[in-house]
Amino acid sequence: MNHSIEIGTDTTGKAVRVDIQELLATRLLVQGNSGSGKSHLLRRLLEQSAGLVQQIVIDPEGDFVTLAEAYSHVVINAGDYNEREIATMAARIREHRASVILSIDTLEIEAQMSCAAAFLNALFDAPREHWFPALVVIDEAQMFAPSASGDVTDAVRRASLSAMTNLMCRGRKRGLAGAIATQRLAKLAKNVAAEASNFLMGRTFLDIDMARAADLLGMERRQAEQIRDLERGCFLGLGPAIARRPVAIRIGATSTSSRNGSHSLLPLPDAEPEDMQSVLFATLDEAPPRPTFAPEPAPLAAGELMERIAASDADEDDNAAPGNMPPAEREDVPAIDAEAVVVGALRDMLADPDTAFQTESVLYQDFSVRCRMQRLARPPLDLTAFRRRFALAKGGVFDPAEPRWRDLLGAAAALPDDMLAPFVLIARAAIDGEPCPDDDALGRTYGTRSPGRIRRLIDYMERQGAIVVRSDFGGRRSIGIPELGLSTEAE
């Protein structure tokens, strides 16, 4: 059986082939500056080998999700799952030999590294009976195996680097073959890059990167200049799965493309300078509307789907709602307590743990549907009022009219709306004499799973004078609210 694929052509037009069987045993490193064609090369490799080997792609930019349409890969949007669920899915991927694309483009860099580490560790820790051969493709590998510390915490960097090292150093015996791509060799940890035996080196301009690329290709330093002259989509290949001597390769065409496309020059708008000036400076006192983007559809529970179907028919019955009836027809219809409907809708929405991580437009649509299901002709709150009420509800304050919350709301008045929910949660704990909320609880109210964002949030609120953070020698944290003169219990 032929296990080789055509990756491109050499300078004479002869096809250059990659032995996938050999690649699984010897791993691959791709390097090239932004725009050199690395993603195109990886896409060609994935398309040509799709029928030969299981493929697992860690996609930090969302470039490869379009492969699913043509090659039946399963796309996992990492932002929809927690770390435990990601690890569970990774174990099932090994068991069932599914080809998947882990899309992490919606996460921040620290969360991307944590997610990739959990995913790779679960692949690596699969039981022996599930050690099937799999090609693990990772774009932007310098993010997950940095050669030096950066903006992320040391714990996250070490976890990600350890997972990448396991993949490249010890993954072969477990059937895992790493194919990693990086913009700069100098930013990629040496113990990760050194484990690859096959290399595809694209255009790069920095001397340190050219020198490392020349060393890996077995070229003399004076020959490294040709790496700078490579065209886009051209690479120098070397390795047991490619060629025994460096060969110049022009990567072949692909049948799919990135959903982001490429940026090409477009004609400039045809407008007179006076017209353009009037457009730019008109009504500056009014903020321009923010562009809205339709969220990707998420799986719905059967009950929620039935509610939304019912809501679509409610438009036809709006005239029958109490608020739209003629006065003579309202007499027999009991009055509806709009405030009770609002509180009930907020409680029901927050009963779903994933609600806190959804966008405002989706949340407001859900809120509107729930109000209409209670026979309110229109939502009692507009989007601005809903944003504040929902933030208060996430903090545990469902009825802001209660006298006990008056001082709390006064203390929160100076904070931005997006910080209202975590502040209210902390202040309510101080009022009730409860322990300080942990980072997970604050993250749910703030709408993030990133510990780094929570730390920055707490630092910001402390700099604003809204809170005072204390930590004892045992590492327990308590947070005081100066304006209320209260503090949470240590936790």
Automatic annotation (TrEMBL):
Family annotation (Pfam families): DUF87 (PF01935)
Segments forming domain AAA+ ATPase: 24-315
InterPro entries: AAA+_ATPase (IPR003593), ATPase_Atu1862_pred (IPR014588), HerA-like (IPR008571), HerA_central (IPR002789), P-loop_NTPase (IPR027417)
Domain of life: Bacteria
PANTHER family on file: HELICASE MJ1565-RELATED
Name of the protein this chain belongs to: AAA+ ATPase domain-containing protein
